[in-house]
Amino acid sequence: MADLQPIEAALEALLADVTPLDAERVALSDAAGRVLAEPVTATLDVPPFDNSAMDGYALCALDAGKRLPVSQRIAAGSTARPLAAGTCARIFTGGQIPPGADCVVMQERVAEENGEALIPVDVPEGDNVRLQGRDVRQGDVLLNAGERLEAAALGHLAGQGITEVRVRRRPRVALLSTGDEIVDPGTPLKPGQLYNSNRPMLKRLLETFGAEVVQLVSVPDDYAQTVALLNHAAAEADVVVSTGGVSIGEEDHVKAALESLGQLDMWKLAIRPGKPLALGRLPRDDGSHARFVGLPGNPVSGFVGAWLFLRPLMGALLGCPALAELPCLTATATFATETGPRQHYMRVALRFTPSGIEADAFDDQNSAVLSSCIAADALAVIDPHTRVEKGSPMRCLWLVG
Length: 401
Description:
By secondary structure, the chain is an alpha/beta fold. The chain has helices at 7-15, 151-158, 198-208, 223-236, 254-261, 299-318, 371-374; strands spanning 23-27, 40-41, 51-52, 56-59, 67-74, 88-91, 103-106, 111-113, 116-118, 129-130, 141-143, 164-168, 172-178, 182-183, 194-195, 212-219, 239-243, 263-267, 271-272, 278-283, 289-295, 328-333, 337-338, 343-353, 356-361, 378-382, 387-388, 393-398. Helix 3 (198-208) packs parallel to helix 6 (299-318) and helix 4 (223-236) crosses helix 5.
């Protein structure tokens, strides 16, 4: 095990010299999940005017406790007139506060009769008024570069009337599946063959991490064809990801093909699952290179490797700090286990209890048991040569896209 490298060294090799991709302008309606390439500054106050937080009556707080004539009706979207002294205005949620009014009393507390409203005595200044600029002031930074545009951020931008944003280009990824024994669903299985579970799983994970999968390629157990397909993938993609073929078997050609074409930066890691993992670079005709990540063929190893390596790589290419590291939390183990010479990443389900977070490990942690990943909320990180007792605190990496 002396030649096995720690995950920290692998991440350092993987991310060395990675810079964010170029930017492009897209419509806000098409920007969901994209990453901002530049900060966005507010050009409007939000809200743009003082408005009512509820249906009721707008008045001057000094007139509380009086019977006031209702001098105007203000619906949302209409322009309020200045409030005549000694009167109130019927107002609806979102309606503009008229000049001269400084509070709103909810309609349930007011009795209106013959065009007059009896106002209760305890109506303080500013009550139920949403002041102009309460959320955003003109000139504020709305969102910083590197921010991922999810639901609230999209709404924040739309509130400024923004229709286009500059975002990072999605990393283009070629996803290669190696092995004569791997066939696509829909193809009758022959003896010794398996359906390709890695392809749809990794494609979905890559898309969740912000990538665009531009190639889905099946690679036979043939050295010359492996070289040719790797070379073709590198010409089109920013990142080439393969599954299988990176171990030391006679039919494992990916590592040798990578070394013949480009550069092998890292091979074999002191982690479980996922020891046979190759990292490197594939050259292009223009002098640049594509990053290469060779994941193991076992589906759980591919699943774990995607979270540990592909997610931070996509984050670096997108300039998105939120993707750089998985959120880490401490949970209490509800199980006992012991590790050997490799760092273990166990699939666990989290339970949030009144006494804290508990981590339940799946019984079968074998790297071929993909069902353990379906309900997994986190990866429990256990150091080499460590005994975990029930009730022990443990570090967990939360699996969020």
